[in-house]
Structures are given as C-alpha cells and as structure tokens.
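Field reference: sequence -> structure
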Amino acid sequence: MDAVAVETNVRVSQRYIEGFISQQEGEPLDTVRLSDDLQALWGTLRFDDVSWRLDERDGRSVLHVEAAGDPYELGFLRPGIRNRRPRRAIPPCICSSAARSDPARMRRLRQFEPGARPYTRAVSESPHVFDVGAADFVPRVLDKSRQVPVLVDFWADWCAPCKALAPILEKLAVELGGRLLVAKVDTEAEPQLAAQFGIRSLPTVVLVSGGEIRDHFMGAQPETAVRAFVQPWLRSPAQQLAAAVSASLAAGDPAAARALVEQAMAEQPDDPTLPVELARVCLADGRLEEAQQILDGLRADVRESDGARLLAASVGFARACAGAPPETELAARVGERPEDLESRYQLAAKRVVRQDYAGALEQFFEIMRRDRRFRDDAGRASIVSVFELPGVDPALVAQYRRRMAALLY
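Structure field:
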C-alpha cells in the first residue's frame, strides 16, 4: 500500500475538521478543495478532538473520522493522490488556491481559526422568524401550528451548517408572508428543550403542524430541498383563514373570528368562498337567521360545495333545536323518559351540529322506530339528511341503511 493510504490515527483539533475532503486529480495533497457538502460535518461533530484514518476500498481511499467512539464515514478521496507526499494532520484552514482567491469563502473559513470571534446569529427583522425557548414553546409553536405550519430550527453558534441553512429558512418564511413560521432554538441556551426532541445532530429542523410533529430533516439542505420539504404542509390563504377562524371559535371568541373574516372580505371582495366562513361564524355565535340569509345568497356552485352543504345542514338542525336545553339535560330527559321524542329529536339535532354523527343517527333511528308520524316522519328524513353530509363515515352510513331496511321491510 502506498504511503498515503497507510492507516494512521492522528489527533487533531475539531476546529480544523470541516467536512468532506475532495482531492482533485493531480493536486498535491496539501492543497485540497472544500466540496459543497463540507459543512455537514461541522454540525455532526461537536467534540474537543477527533481521530481520522484513511482506508482502501474499490481502489479508492475512504476518509473516516471517529469522535467519542462514534464513527463517521466522510466519503471518497478522488483518485490521483497516490505517490504523493505522506499525509499529515489537517492544517488550521483547509482551502485551495481557488478558495484563497474567494474573499467571501476566506472570511467564512477564518471565523474557525484560533482566536476568531464567535459566530452570533443576526436577529431577523421578519415577524415570521423568531427565537423560542422552553418557556414560550407551547404558545408560540404548538398552539400557533394549529393555524400555520412552524419549522423549529435547532442550531448553535459553533455550527457552520446552521449558518448556511438559516438564510434559506428566513427567505422562505418572508416569501410566504405568514403561511410558514420559523422558530429558532439555540441549543446552547435551551439544552433541555433540545433533549426533549432527541436532537443529536445540528442543524435539525422539525416541522410542527396541528400541534404535532409531522416531519424533520438534519443537516444543511439546498433551497430546493427545503421548499420540497415544506410544500405539502403549506395551506392556501383560504385554508389559513379557516384555521385562524377555527382557533378563535375554539377559544370562545366569535367576535375575533368575525373580524378576521370581515377583514378578508374587505381585502378580497370578489372571493365567493368568504361568505361561507362568515356564515360559519354566525352559526357558532348563535346568529342562525343571519347565517341562513348568507347561505341563501350564495352563488349556486358555492352552495353545492362540501363546506356550504355541511354548514347548511348544521344551520338547519341548529334552528330545529333553537331554545332547547343543554345537551346534557336533554340526554338525562331521554334516559328518564324514552318516549319523549321531542327531547330525543333536539338531542340528535345538537349532536349533528357538533358532528357527532353516530350519536345523532342512533337517536334519529330510535325516533323512526318508535313513531313514524312524529314531525311527519322526521326520524327517517333526518337520517337521510345526515347520510348526505360530507365527512360522514361510509361504514356508518351502510350500517344504518341496513337497519332502516330491516325496519321498513
């Protein structure tokens, strides 16, 4: 084996290892070129020192690094390094003559030299990029992710790939104008938060949507890869508005929900779907007549959409049980007096409004079984109406079709 391929175990400072070393054929060994993927190692190795060796494989030399007992195979050195001078410890700043002529690259390299000023991340001016810690992680990330997807960027100021990735994430957040948020977690300041997420490599980016972790990636990625990663989770402006309205309604604030919809209608007066959102707010706020008027005025194609059909049915059932006691009281009445079909009907209607279709169908079927004359066969008619609602489980529909057929025939 040539001298250059002889295995060695040279101890070097971690600051001198930046990643994959690629060797141009014919170049002297002490003049090497940084490949585009070099920065990945900086985020992987976080140790005081490392050992490295060179192995033979398929006629090529493979560079390995071992840190704290964990091996990392960095990649192949290019052919053409044989019969050169023996290897030596990696110098403080690995760069070729081409790199030396690039001022930007030299500035980037010099910050790793001994005595260089530590890297400090520039504070973003965008409201869509912000620092977060354990104290405010729930409201700023988990709760907010119910309205818009959030990328949680775990980084550290010693991590070069973190610095390469940060402007890509910020660019996307700014470009998408609030459809995507980027939450920055400094793992040096928030080690417990990083431990909770099982962070072992930097940078690690976690995507949170709907209050749950959906996906993640590790290491610096090109912009095209990051765009492809987030694209499936991006909501359209209409979906984003619907999520914000739902969050306000869930928080018991219909006034805020209405303000969101009215602002959107003022900005987009020609959007035919926004009145559906306004009708939804009216239903939640108990303004049933106003909701019905809005639905009656919808364009024909919008009226036939799934969202409008579901809303129209909900408004109809809500009007049917307007002024009725709370659902718990109605359930108690039905339990005490099973023949009280009016209370049973109101109970079923309330369950349709909150989309408990299985519970509603059970009550409607019992009305149909007990008295077909009640409200002009309201039990059967209501079951058929529920069948036509979007989002009802087909298996549930099939179950009650069989039960109806057995009862009728």
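Note: The domain at 129-233 is CATH 3.40.30.10 (Glutaredoxin).
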